Amino acid sequence: MTSTGTVLVDTRRSALSPGELTALGWHGVLRPVLGPLMVPWGVPLGAALRWEALQLLLADVLPEAGVVADATAAWLWAGGPPPERLDVAVPRLHRAPDPGAFPLRLRDGVPPERWVLHSGALAVTNPQRTIVEVLARTPVGQREREHVRCLDLAARCGLNTRARLPDGILEGLSPRQCVSVQRQWERLRRRALDAAA
User: Fold this and answer.
1) Strand, helix or coil at 135?
2) Are residues 116 and 160 in the same domain?
3) H helices of 45-93, where?
4) Are residues 168 and 81 in the same domain?
5) pTM, whole model, 2 decimals?
6) How many helices (H) and strands (E) does the chain have?
7) CA angle, corner 57, sides to 75 and 140, nearest 5?
């Protein structure tokens, strides 16, 4: 096992078998964070640790000008079950990612820069834009699970009491996606207000 210099343990270079790593989890020594990355039990899985995990996994495979977006950004900001693949928006698709790396799902269209946060080589949609991206791109059958994350993010951003989304936040989406996001946002907003009442 290789430590990343902090509490993250990268099991990709581990001398332990998958069974031994599983046993470490069963015995309360390590728990998974994202893909091959684990932490000791008792370490909080906050946004800073999730950000570090994404930086580590994407260090060598993030396409130039790529932005972590959609459900992966929602996981970063709100937590919950880790994604099985990482969603990355790129200026335009031109080649498939390295098949040996952690699975990436690339999509065309980087969000406007004002809705993106940067730290080191990692760029991620901010919480407000993340809500919009998730609402625009989550298939109907998976929306309930993602709506829970969106409500959490909306509460953190102070958005759950606003009648409208921030100006310009729908920039770059198709007209159909804009209508869908606005409808879903109203449902989410009503749901949040009902829960607060």
Assistant:
1) helix
2) yes
3) 47-58, 70-78
4) yes
5) 0.84
6) 6, 9
7) 35
